[in-house]
Design brief:
19 strands; Double-stranded beta-helix; 47% strand; 6-stranded antiparallel sheet
Length: 228
């Protein structure tokens, strides 16, 4: 399998299968275009309970798998908002923990599972949810980045506090917690919400400059509402 990232504002990953039998999976409805010689199969990928778990993590109940019937066929998956597409090696450093909605597509040999943060407060108050996505196994996976991508390498014990919607992924060696913003006036007037994501090294973290939920909230202010 070969791939290339094409486009700038709304990029896509175009994948070329070298031989028959190669396949890639995505959430339902994720394919953008494909050549002849590729067939699709749809299932819960791992059973109903895994499918339900993915729903909690922000993905679809069903996953679509695209398999090449012959060599030299192509398929593409595009980002849903302006930003970037990040290719990752799922087997490197034990994989990554990703926020919901970051997964775009992956080779069949890659595992996509729900995972739980160590503290229940992360799920009750964390905005992006108690349930995250774990990517592991062997092969290539592709993540969506909203806006621009920022990579940081945290030293052991180094802490970075981030608006939750700006976290894309982090290595499994990074500790993930949610903490409440301190100070009554900061909570009421600060405009940053009640909680921040606290990431503690060592390990790599991937951030995005666009917080889609916050952006959608700003757009919603300009949508006319029906008046009686």
């Amino acid at each position: 399998m070969k791939y290339r990232i094409i486009g700038n504002t709304m990029p896509a990953v175009e994948i070329k299968f070298d031989s028959a039998g190669e396949s890639i999976f995505t959430q339902s409805g994720g394919m953008t275009w494909m050549s002849e010689g590729i067939h699709m199969s749809t299932n819960t990928r791992g059973g109903l309970m895994k499918g339900i778990g993915r729903m909690f993590a922000g993905e679809s109940l069903f996953m679509a798998t695209y398999t090449a019937d012959r060599p030299d066929t192509e398929i593409a998956f595009a980002s849903t908002v302006a930003g970037q597409i990040l290719p990752i090696n799922a087997g490197l450093n034990g994989g990554l923990i990703c926020q919901k909605g970051a997964f775009l597509c992956a080779q069949e040999s890659v595992n996509l599972n729900i995972t739980f943060s160590k503290k229940i407060s992360s799920g009750l108050f964390g905005g992006e949810g108690f349930i995250l996505q774990g990517i592991s196994g062997q092969g290539m996976a592709f993540l969506e980045i909203d806006g621009d991508m920022i990579e940081k390498q945290l030293a052991p014990g180094e802490v970075l506090k981030v608006d939750t919607g700006n976290v894309v992924a982090f290595e499994k060696s990074v500790n993930y917690e949610i903490e409440m913003v301190k100070g009554f006036s900061n909570i009421i007037f600060g405009g940053e919400g009640l909680f921040l994501t606290k990431l503690t090294g060592p390990g790599k973290i991937i951030l995005q400059t666009q917080n889609l939920a916050e952006f959608a909230g700003r757009i919603a202010r300009f949508i006319p509402t029906k008046t009686s």
